[in-house]
Amino acid sequence: MKSVGENIKDLRIARKITQTDLAKTLYTRSAISKIEHSNQDLLYENAKVILEKLGVSQTEFEYIRNNYSFTPKEDIIYSFLNITYNTETATINELLKKCSYLADDPDITHIKIILTAFKNDKDQLGLTLAKKMLIPLWNDQFSKYDTWTILDLHILNMIFFIFDTETMNQISKQAITVINTKYPFLKSLKASFLLNRGILLMRSGNITQAIQALKSTCQICQKNRQYDKLLIAQTRIAICNNDKDLALHYINILHELGATDLSTSLKKEVLLFLN
Question: Which of 23, 198, 240, 248 has its CA 20 to 30 A from that of 140?
């Protein structure tokens, strides 16, 4: 395995970035040279900025360092971070199988609990069981942290549905603040928090606040060309405005794009709120 500095050099050259450009606001050009030759340590906070300049996430960088392969734990975490909807049943089940091989790892144990609860959030009984599994995890772990890592944020986004409106508002505000200040590149995750905040506000009858959250989601998704989340947000805004025809129009677009499970799930939302 190559050193951190060697991989940074390879990525920098591949992207035609000079040492001077990479060093801006962080180091001198000579310091970058020393880092690339393993003669100077790279500070963690600066590493995040450098990787962002190189256009890779920390996970992707570790994947490259490991000769374009993941360790079993990294594979689970990477797959977990890319699950967006509880309708991805096949993916969730496959990931749960992988988790069973690393049962003694605390991070993987958390992921297994969350995946099990996440896929069960399909009816009132499933929601009750999910809350029973996840609330202790929140109380014993995440509620006590001063800040959250990227993995923490993804976990919180997936267990968002268990919270009451007041707790949800506190988590979403803190999560978005953490993303804005520490991980501004996590725009897709920020959109997911806003989407989840929107549906929970709808369920609690706070329609005005729900529309605000969903419109913010639309702005992010339009800039980042995240058309699936954009259509979800537009569907929910239509539901908030009691426009069933428009909501079904957006759902049909999702269906035509191949998002069958997602469109089916959204139709249930239309029946729940507009029937």
Answer: 198
